[in-house]
Amino acid sequence: MEKFIICSNVPGCKEIVSNNFNGYLVKPNDTKDLIKKIKNFIKLPKSRIYKMEKNSRRRTLSLYSDEIVIKKYLKLINDIKNKKFNK
Predict the structure, then answer these.
(1) pLDDT tens readout for residues 52-76
(2) Which domains occur in the chain, in start order?
């Protein structure tokens, strides 16, 4: 989607956001840190936002494309099958 991301530094989010690369990670349950990151975002030049949004798309495709996810699922399934039959 090519979007700048501001999210909490918690499992599930921190794997998608690389701080200062495609968005900002916020300390969990820290309102002051969230406000700081939003203010930082507002101050960014449009060219930097654009670049970080492009980085979001590239990062997502490189980590979570259909091909990559399917390969990981198939490997997991095969690993489970092999463990069952090797016992």
Answers:
(1) 999 999 999 988 889 988 999 999 9
(2) 5-85 (3.40.50.2000)
